[in-house]
Write a structure and sequence with these properties.
The complex is a heterotrimer of chains A (229), B (302) and C (175). Chain A is an alpha/beta fold and 229 residues long. In chain A, 34% of the residues lie in helices and 13% in strands. Chain A is built from eight helices and seven strands; from the N terminus they run H-E-E-H-H-E-E-E-H-E-H-E-H-H-H. In chain A, helix 3 runs antiparallel to helix 6. The radius of gyration of chain A is 20 Å and the shape is globular. Chain C is an alpha+beta fold. Helices cover 30% and strands 25% of the residues of chain C. The chains are: A alpha/beta (229), B mainly alpha (302), C alpha+beta (175).
Chain lengths: 229, 302, 175
């Protein structure tokens, strides 16, 4: 049985949500003519991600070695696990000696540590940040929340499986894993990259439609372009 | 001036040496900073790995023409400073393309890269870039004040604007260095050097905690690689400028490496000791004591 | 404390007075008299600080219970006013003219329980849930497990145990 008030709420949220600045609107041009602007189409790049083929042979091996030894981590803590990242720069753990460094902006980072649970609201930001990172890019999923939802497995607002929304390279199990486990995860990621298996960005481009369908299933106020360059 | 091919090749070789020395110096300094805080720090070859990775990224985006040209201008600032700087005293091949008025040109190149970067990062459109640019330009303008005062003092003292002649005048022993013949100008310039290198008290421009990385927020891949190459060149060139002006120049590469290392270490030393200034504090600081000392340095020679 | 409660009884006909501690009392008040009472407590009796505004869903009674907890910083005493409102078309008078900060609570209650506060600033904007289409999730008739199963691709093979039973079977299997 549906009550009247719930119906009213459903009615309100029925149409696709758009931030006010992203709505289609009429603008008068300098010459006086009225033109229509659709910010999602006009202001953003509509291009889909492309599969970027790796180079061949020894060259790619060398570049993969360089990528593995220079992991730049995006400083974006999504859940409670983000408290495990700051200790990595302290004298006790010191991730700098393994070539792992923190970068404050997605444009300059290669590794995205999804630290713990992702609410739907955070997932939207995480996808935006992930898509802005230059390829090749890698994702480390920290904690059991990213694997099967962890202790938030029946929550109304946190996702259960991260790999349905963005491709994951390395999972680190635990609730929460300690910084040592995170360092071991970086070590595992290095092995993967050096053996040429760090091609998840291409997988994302290949299965782009599937990932987008999953993302749009839960992110209902989709007010960004399909791929955030 | 000598425009032969040999000279050109030797200058390129010098640029290569300076780039690599700059990167080694920066990794060494980061190791020193790490040891101060009890860590081991990055491996000494980390800057080369980072550069290789940055130049090998597969996807890059651009925001327009100026976005491309920003790092190029910045690199031009560093390379230009190197090109017109006599690196080794007494060597024709290593004195690059220095001429009688090179000091003025080098002061200009010091600022040039900053302006190009401002244009490029501005087109990136990120608000943090804009904040970083406004902070960077206002701080760098005030850095220039004591620096220029010191240079004017030197010009009056030695009656020349040629770096080679200034170095020549300092030969003949420790007591002939500007450090001892004109201590006020040296102090003013060494204080402004702290801001030019952008270490801790004056690293608000790239403050990684508050405004993520400042002007290069949107730069990635090859763009960032160019910026990093430039910072390696610029650091050595700037240290070499101070070495030439105040510390008697260098008569061989070994002397240059020791002296530039110590000059760069001075800013790192201050940086590990002092916390960061806010922008209004740093601007006021540069316009207070370094400027007063610089004015005294001029008054003495009037 | 006692004098204040007496005065509230006289002025606003509060019921169900419970004094939990020396400095903490709960009172029930009629929906129409709730805001006047809070205003009087704030302006006249020195209860100037808002601690929280929260709601309880009494599904069986068809009621929402709003609790305004306010604090007197000078005497360090708390009074919590319980207001029962109807679950159907739940609406309550906004109190954002008293405390600026209460609009955040009201925005959250609008989103999580569907209780409307007409006139409260930004009350219709989404707070945590962006673009929520189901019934408000804190209502007790909302099945969060079912919603999660339908929406978030649960990983198969998950087992859950009652902690007490599980530990008993592990540690004392013979009992």
């Amino acid at each position: 049985m549906e009550r009247e008030f719930d119906k009213a709420i459903k009615e309100m949220y029925k149409e696709k949500f758009l931030a006010p600045e992203n709505e289609v609107r009429q603008v008068s041009a300098p010459d006086g003519s009225i033109i229509e602007i659709d910010p999602l189409k006009d202001y953003f790049c509509q291009e889909r991600p492309k599969e970027l083929k790796p180079r061949k042979g020894v060259v790619e091996d060398f570049l993969n070695w360089a990528r593995a030894e220079s992991l730049w981590v995006l400083g974006f803590g999504t859940g409670c696990g983000s408290i495990e990242i700051p200790p990595l720069v302290t004298p006790r753990f010191d991730m700098y000696r393994y070539g792992v460094q923190m970068r404050p902006t997605p444009r300059q980072s290669n590794v995205f540590v999804i630290s713990g649970y992702l609410s739907v609201k955070t997932l939207k930001r995480a996808i935006r940040s992930y898509e802005q990172m230059p390829s090749p890019k890698y994702i480390i999923a920290l904690g059991s929340c990213t694997i099967n939802g962890g202790m938030y497995w029946d929550s109304y607002n946190t996702i259960n499986r991260l790999d349905h929304y963005i491709p994951v390279d390395v999972y680190i199990a635990g609730c929460m894993p300690r910084p040592e486990a995170l360092l071991a995860g970086f070590g595992k990621l290095k092995e993967l990259i050096k053996s040429g298996q760090g091609e998840k960005a291409n997988e994302y481009a290949r299965n782009f439609d599937w990932y987008k369908a999953n993302q749009k299933k839960i992110i209902r106020d989709w007010n960004m372009p399909d791929y955030n360059w | 001036m000598d425009y032969s091919l040999t000279k050109f090749l030797w200058t390129l070789l010098g640029l290569f040496i300076v780039t690599n020395w700059g990167m080694l110096m920066s990794s060494t300094m980061r190791r020193i900073i790490a040891r101060v805080s009890g860590r081991i720090g990055i491996p000494w070859y980390q800057p080369w790995i980072d550069l290789t990775k940055l130049y090998s990224l597969r996807s890059q985006i651009t925001h327009g023409t100026m976005f491309y040209l920003g790092p190029v201008f910045r690199l031009m600032g560093g390379v230009g400073m190197f090109l017109f700087m006599p690196m080794i005293f007494g060597s024709n091949l290593w004195s690059n393309y220095s001429f009688s008025g090179d000091l003025v040109l080098i002061l200009y190149f010091q600022f040039f890269g900053m302006l190009g970067m401002a244009l490029g990062a501005g087109e990136g459109g990120h608000p943090y870039s804009a904040i970083g640019i406004s902070r960077g330009l206002s701080q760098f303008t005030t850095i220039e004040v004591p620096m220029t005062l010191a240079v004017i003092s030197l010009a009056i003292q030695y009656d020349t604007l040629s770096i080679a002649k200034i170095v020549e005048a300092q030969q003949g022993g420790l007591m002939h260095w500007t450090l001892f013949t004109n201590p006020f100008a040296t102090v003013a310039a060494m204080l402004s050097l702290l801001g030019a290198f952008g270490h801790s008290p004056f690293n608000l421009v790239k403050a990684p905690n508050e405004i993520p990385i400042g002007p290069p927020t949107e730069y990635h891949g090859t763009f960032l690689g160019v910026l990093r190459t430039n910072s390696a060149i610029l650091h050595v060139a700037e240290a070499a400028l101070f070495m030439n002006l105040f510390f008697g120049g260098a008569s061989n590469w070994f002397e240059l490496i020791i002296k530039t290392f110590l000059i760069y270490f001075w800013s790192v030393f201050v940086g590990t000791v002092f916390p960061r200034f806010r922008i209004e504090q740093s601007v006021v600081w540069f316009l207070k004591w370094p400027t007063i000392i610089g004015i005294i340095a001029i008054i003495i020679y009037l | 404390m006692v004098e204040i409660l007496k005065e509230l009884e006289d002025r606003f006909q509060v019921t169900d007075l419970v004094q939990q501690k020396d400095h903490l009392a709960f009172v029930s008040v009629d929906k129409n008299k709730a805001i006047p009472m809070i205003t009087w407590l704030k302006d006249q009796a020195g209860y100037t600080s808002l601690t929280l505004l929260t709601a309880v869903d009494w599904l069986e009674d068809g009621k929402f219970q709003l609790t305004y907890m306010i604090n007197n910083p000078k005497k360090n005493s708390q009074i919590a006013a319980r207001v029962m409102i109807d679950r159907e078309n739940a609406t309550m008078e906004s109190a954002h003219h008293l405390w600026e900060s209460i609009r955040i609570y009201q925005r959250e209650l609008k989103e999580m329980f569907g209780i409307d506060f007409p006139g409260s600033p930004e009350v219709d904007e989404s707070f945590i849930l962006e673009g929520w289409v189901d019934i408000p999730p804190y209502r007790r008739d909302f099945d969060t497990k079912k919603y999660s199963d339908e929406t978030y691709f649960p990983r198969p093979g998950r087992q859950s145990n009652d902690p007490a039973e599980y530990m008993k079977s592990k540690m004392y299997p013979n009992e």
